[in-house]
Amino acid sequence: MKHHILILNGPNLNLLGQREPDQYGDISLDTLEQKLRAEFSDVELSFYQSNHEGDLVDRLHEGHRSGLSGIVFNPGAYTHTSVALRDAVKAIATPVIEVHLSNIYSREPFRHFSYLAPVCVGQISGLGMAGYSLAVRWLKSHD
Questions:
Q1: What is the per-residue pLDDT across 5-19, written as a single tens digit (0 to 9) for each?
Q2: What is the DSSP letter of 123?
Q3: What secondary structure does DSSP assign to 46-100, as a single string?
Q4: Among 49, 72, 132, 137, which is most exposed with the fewest C-beta within 10 angstroms?
């Protein structure tokens, strides 16, 4: 069975490569997509980014209904604020891995807390773009 994994990105991640490159790197979201597609040609990857919380909730629900193998989710700043996203992840059976480019625990104190981490199967923080690859690799190996 071919795996189908959603790479879901939250607010401001459309500005990757431009916004605070010292913190988030200089690779764009499009380049990340190209790299992941090349690395995981054996996986059906879907990509979605939104700056709107409700759109992200809808994508989580749709991913569950469509039978995705898993979701790699960088919720951006919603990590620290969104009970709605936490509830959406908790409500679905699809495994979700929370990913952050920067180490949220070495940044401002308000970033040290994640509403989503307790309801995700795991969290990867601070490994840059490699975090996405590690999450896809894990989801591929844990059916």
A1: 999 999 999 988 766
A2: E
A3: EEEE-S-HHHHHHHHHHHHHTT-SEEEEE-GGGGGT-HHHHHHHHH--S-EEEEE
A4: 137
The pair of three-digit structure tokens given for residue 24, joined into one six-digit string = 């988030």
Give the phi and the psi of residue 4 in degrees, each rounded to 5: -125, 115
Distance CA 14, CA 16 (A): 6
Q: pTM for the full model? A: 0.92
What's the confidence (pLDDT) of residue 25? 67
What is the CB neighbour count within 10 angstroms for residue 43? 18
Residue 43: what residue type?
Answer: V
pLDDT at residue 100 above 80? Answer: yes
Please pick, among 78, 100, 115, 132, the residue that the annotation labels catalytic: 100
Active site residue 105: no
Catalytic residue among 24, 78, 115, 132: 24
Candidates 132, 115, 138; CA nearest to 69 is 138
What is the rounded CA–CA span in Å between residue 11 and residue 9? 7
